[in-house]
Design goal:
single chain; mainly alpha; Helix Hairpins; 6 helices; 87% helix; globular; binds adenosine-5'-triphosphate; kinase activity
Length: 153
Amino acid sequence: MWLYKLGRSFRYAGRGFAHVLRRERNLRIHLTAVFYVSWAGILGRLGGAEWALLWICFAMVIGAELFNTAIETLGNAVTREKNETVGKAKDVAAGAVLVCAVGSVGAAAGIFGCTGAWKTVLRSLGSSTPLSVIAIATVPAAILFIRGRGTWK
Ligand SMILES: Nc1ncnc2c1ncn2[C@@H]1O[C@H](COP(=O)(O)OP(=O)(O)OP(=O)(O)O)[C@@H](O)[C@H]1O
């Protein structure tokens, strides 16, 4: 019984994530950043501690984006009319995402900069034509993913 309930809560969580993925371009931008930073981390041969820090940053930004959408959705449920309090709540939620994103960019810059991993990344891309071709080929796919389709915005 508890296993069934656990499975059900995972299903609800997955449904919430899928909803935000379809609706919010910013989440798709964050996921694209996760892809490229992870790839750079592999090429840059980051160590365990650096990966742990990066994953905390990924989770923090994506989690903040999900909370932001939850607050936006609740605000819209309260009223679609202009409302100062709803507007403020949405601004604060957006501010929280910004704080997490800026902190994560700082952490990533510190990780790749201080360990010299950025040099390894550039060396790997420079010395391997297939890797560079794959890197360039992923860009249109990333743009299409971020733009979304149909009702996506
Ligand atoms: N009901 C409201 N009353 C006052 N200001 C609002 C309201 N809704 C949104 N705003 C202002 O507009 C900003 C953007 O809001 P929101 O994120 O909902 O817009 P959006 O991204 O265009 O909406 P959605 O994601 O639902 O399409 C908010 O941060 C807030 O400043």
